[in-house]
Design a protein that fits this description.
The protein is of the alpha/beta class and about 400 residues long. The protein is built from eight helices and 16 strands. The N and C termini lie close together (about 5 Å).
């Protein structure tokens, strides 16, 4: 193992520091500063900051032509109050690293230690600490940044820890691994009236009551069925918090999911038609907006083969259980510019689930994740047989 016991202890401390100070999508300024501060001890050949927002890219280069290999982690946390009792629990009210992005970024800091000691023999390695994964905006912003062209990869790899898998076990397949998704906001507008005379107004009550279950009923099937669709109502509000007013306005938020991007347009149209039908029936005005748009994540066969080779060399058990998964990931956008693949690293069968208030990233995965990535990097950038 290229990381010493002292390295691993220090990396766990760094992970705990990141965990204490979570920042949500688009607000990761201090998190990025902490990452840059830690990278100064393992100086890369080139350091980009402010990439696609608060993104950071550390480039470790050789003096020979070869592939550019990008390893990506995420910087952002969640707007959820943490309810763990660990000493390093969040110090920020209503914010928590409850998806493990603190751990993913720490793994990349571990890679930086080895790459600063032993540069790639050919090509270059880019460690990308990406902002704003949770709202789907970060990968697109990084790719749109003009400076990204200088680090555009031939291969892009990422991981996500996954509770429900045995600790340290890997799930990996080629093809779709994460579903496409997007948030739909349906806004209904009528006319208020006195609560004693609701007939003098136009209330969205019946429309919203009909629309919520009807939207959910648009879903059917399960991954990996090609026609899988899912609609989850995530938020609804109607009128004012008052007893004397018959409401005029209502708003419903829902998340739409399909296995691939190709099926999303059909589901959006079905949801829009249904909402318009309910609104028209009750004489309501309607406005529909979309947010949190995620492309589906497709693992390239060659990139998957590289990861499988590394897993076998490192004697790490792997299969394809649980894939493709319904959750979305904006890492899929990197597949448009490179051979990309994401694997899922088991956080333990009984570990609290992602986005649960009692979740905490297992420090044991820092070593495992770093080994997998480093073996993959060395296989692509070094023709010598290196013992890690």
């Amino acid at each position: 193992m290229f990381l010493s016991n002292q390295d691993l202890a220090e990396l766990a401390d760094i992970r705990h520091e990141l965990h204490r100070y979570p920042e949500i999508s688009g607000e990761e300024r201090e998190t990025a500063r902490r990452i840059v501060e830690r990278l100064r001890a393992t100086p890369p050949d080139h350091l980009m900051t402010g990439l696609g927002g608060h993104g950071v890219a550390a480039v470790f280069a050789s003096d020979k032509d070869g592939p550019t290999v990008l390893i990506r982690s995420e910087l952002d946390a969640l707007p959820i109050h943490e309810k763990t009792t660990v000493p390093h629990r969040s110090t920020i009210e209503g914010r928590g690293h409850l998806c493990g992005h603190d751990g993913h970024s720490t793994i990349l800091l571990g890679l930086a230690r080895e790459l600063s000691r032993n540069r790639p023999a050919k090509g270059k390695v880019v460690l990308l600490f990406q902002p704003a994964e949770e709202n789907g905006a970060g990968a697109a912003a990084v790719l749109a940044d003009p400076r990204f062209e200088a680090i555009k990869p031939d291969y892009a790899f990422s991981l996500h820890n996954l509770p429900g898998l045995p600790l340290g076990h890997v799930s990996l397949i080629a093809g779709p691994v994460n579903c496409a998704s997007r948030g739909i906001k349906v806004k209904l507008a009528g006319k208020t009236a006195h609560a004693s005379s609701p007939e003098q107004g136009i209330s969205p009550m019946r429309a919203i009551a009909k629309l919520m279950p009807a939207l959910a009923d648009l879903g059917h099937g399960h991954p990996p069925q090609p026609d899988f669709k899912m609609v989850t109502i995530t938020h609804a509000i109607m009128g004012e918090a008052a007893f004397g007013i018959s409401p005029a306005d209502a708003e419903i938020w829902a998340t739409l999911r399909t296995l691939t991007n190709d099926s999303m347009a059909e589901l959006c149209k079905a949801a829009e038609d249904l909402a318009a039908e309910c609104a028209t029936a009750d004489g309501l005005a309607i406005d529909i907006l979309y947010d949190d748009v995620f492309q589906h994540c497709e693992n390239d066969e060659d990139a998957v083969a590289q990861l499988r080779s590394a897993l076998d060399q490192e004697h790490i058990l792997h299969d394809g259980r649980g894939l493709p998964m319904r959750a979305s990931e904006d890492f899929g956008r990197f597949g448009a510019v490179s051979k990309s693949a994401m694997f899922f690293l088991g956080a333990g069968i009984d570990h609290p689930n992602l986005h649960n208030p009692d979740y905490d990233f297992p420090d044991e995965l820092i070593e495992v994740g770093a080994r997998i990535f480093m073996r993959t990097i060395r296989n692509l950038t070094d023709d010598r047989q290196i013992r890690l």
